[in-house]
Amino acid sequence: MIFPKTITSPRLIFAALMMAMLNACNTSPTKGEQNHLAIEQVLEIAPGILQGYMPQDNQLDSKVFVPPLPGKDSPRQALDTAWADNMLKLRGTPRWDLAIRDADLYFPAAADAFSCSLGIPVTEEGTPALYMLLRRTLADLGLASYSAKNAYQRERPFMVNGAPICTPEDEAALRKDGSYPSGHTSIGWGWALILTELSPDQTDALIARGRSFGESRNVCNVHWYSDVIAGRLVGAAAVAKLHDNEQFLAAMDVARADIARARAAGLTPTVDCEAEARALAIPLQ
Questions:
Q1: What share of the chain is helix, strand, coil (3-state, %, to 5)?
Q2: In terms of Cα–Cα distance, which of 210, 214, 1 is closest to 87?
Q3: Is 243 a catalytic residue?
């Protein structure tokens, strides 16, 4: 996971996000303000990144529960290496193209990631509360990975195998950003869990998309298999912690109503869901 250093950058780097977050005012709203804040403008803690729901002094310490990274000559590393080698075969395929799309955590593009599995478009205009919920939880889910990332500082696959990545413009930043666990996976898996709670009838499709969102980082040659597995653990832990936050729970209620209205209006995704399905049908092994 990376983020842009400046407003002109295409993505955000974590260091800028954390510095801004540490300087941000993190107040807790009253119950009467919660529904209003679910769709109201929220403080931007870095260019394009909104303040999450979890206070800065209550972030997850993921290094406590994420297992140690695989040893150099361990069976786990052998699996990681074999998996990474196999992913290189997908370069130039539709699955590679989808991985490029999944790499973009910047809104509004990121809102499309789960629209096919959810069955409705996710937009600032049509589903404003849901859109805001995803934007804010991006920070909560992504930041949760950094305690372990910073502790392990693992090299990424492309730094070992020398093969291209799907977003070459990010390579310099990725070299400085620890690989284990995968922050993209934490975000994608967390979003999948949040969305299944909001729309349980779509659970199978949403969880499958959450899995593939993380696997896109393997396809991109920027994360090892074990990075993605650990990222799911972090995402699940962050979602569990969010359920102790009253503002998050209030936002969930408003977002659930957004989904119901979109379905009642017969809204359908604007992305090419058939093309997405074809890309996801390509086997990774």
A1: 60, 0, 35
A2: 214
A3: no
